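queue> pop job 88
queue> type: inverse folding (structure -> sequence)
queue> payload:
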């Protein structure tokens, strides 16, 4: 049952026949794991909290740096030096006391993800390194959790929802990570500050739709955003039946840290 205060707080949701009081209760009961409290993670966390997603797990080992504030809008100048997960919790507590923020001040690894991910309904990717992305993709397939993908660089971004066997996983589309150094990070190549806001809100929208069970999720479609041209393109993407993780005869059936070693040595770049 919603309290009087909740009926007021969520009244614009409750007015929507596709959401209503029942949908709001689904949001309040939902548990979302957010990987990274940086550029993408900031708008995702702010809007999911405002929308009343009841449990938000946030994984990030980093502290807030001055160079983050150009785009990581959940953090403010007095937060510099604080753990990002603490800064997220403080901000969200002020926005919506209905939201329980669970802090994981650590990077995602093959050791901690199997303990954490099964407690959540879905995962939102706010990381910016390939090792973490492959790790979370494989984990999401193994633990059967929908995976809301987003990535950004310079003026461009991508988003999709991976939920095999409905549609592909990340590995079906990108079987191998590019060699280290082939694709620059935002730290090396820059990113327009507003771009993670744009892509992160697409991810937040997809997460809310998945929780409510409304609309057409970005499953089987890769959204490609060209920020300078302001063009949104959809590429149809299919599950690869030979995919090593979500295919018919998978070879990756559990997480092994040696397959994702780059994740633990990419300190400082896991926050987009
Ligand atoms: Zn796959």
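queue> result:
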């Amino acid at each position: 049952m919603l309290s009087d205060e909740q009926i007021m707080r969520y009244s614009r949701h409750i007015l929507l026949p596709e959401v209503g009081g029942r949908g709001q209760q689904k949001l309040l009961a939902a548990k979302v794991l957010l990987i990274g409290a940086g550029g993408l993670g900031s708008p995702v966390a702010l809007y999911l909290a405002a929308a009343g997603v009841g449990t938000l797990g946030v994984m990030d080992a980093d502290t807030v740096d001055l160079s983050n504030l150009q785009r990581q809008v959940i953090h403010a100048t007095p937060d510099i030096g604080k753990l990002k997960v603490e800064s997220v919790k403080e901000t969200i507590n002020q926005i919506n006391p209905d939201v329980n923020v669970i802090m994981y001040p650590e990077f995602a690894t093959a050791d901690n993800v199997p303990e954490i991910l099964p407690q959540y309904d879905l995962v939102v990717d706010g990381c910016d390194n390939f090792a973490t992305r492959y790790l979370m993709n494989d984990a999401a397939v193994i633990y059967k959790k929908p995976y809301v993908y987003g990535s950004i660089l310079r003026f461009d971004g991508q988003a999709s929802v991976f939920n095999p066997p409905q549609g592909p996983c990340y590995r079906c589309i990108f079987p191998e990570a590019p060699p280290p150094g082939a694709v620059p990070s935002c730290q090396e190549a820059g990113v327009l500050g507003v771009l993670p806001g744009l892509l992160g809100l697409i991810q937040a929208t997809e997460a809310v739709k998945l929780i409510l069970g409304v609309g057409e999720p970005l499953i089987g479609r890769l959204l490609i955003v060209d920020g300078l041209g302001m063009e949104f393109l959809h590429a149809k993407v299919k599950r690869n039946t030979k995919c090593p993780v979500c295919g018919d005869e998978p070879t990756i059936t559990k997480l092994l840290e040696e397959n994702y070693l780059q994740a633990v040595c990419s300190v400082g770049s896991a926050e987009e």
